[in-house]
Design brief:
This protein has helices spanning 28-46, 67-71, and strands spanning 17-22, 54-59. The chain has a two-stranded parallel ribbon. Helix 1 links the parallel strand 1 (17-22) and strand 2. The protein contains 2 helices and 2 strands; from the N terminus they run βαβα. By secondary structure, it is an alpha+beta fold. Helix content is 29%, strand content 14%. The mean pLDDT is 83.
Length: 84
Amino acid sequence: MTQGTGINLRRFFHMPHIAVMMYPGRDDEKKMALAKKLQDAVEEALGVDRKVISVSVEDVAKEDWDENFKKKIDKKTIFIEAEV
């Protein structure tokens, strides 16, 4: 809990966190299925309880996804680029 705020941050922030960004067009059911599979994979790969793994799925319009996106990625970040 953060001192003086009365807010329990453990309730809002979990680690590890997986952020997925993709073009719009998939329904919430597919996004939820993806999020759960990612939780499963992280649980297995890292040996952590799925209760501490959070996942966000964000739609990004095609016109907002350009070469500038790659420039925003920190050089220390592990990034696997799509082979398109």
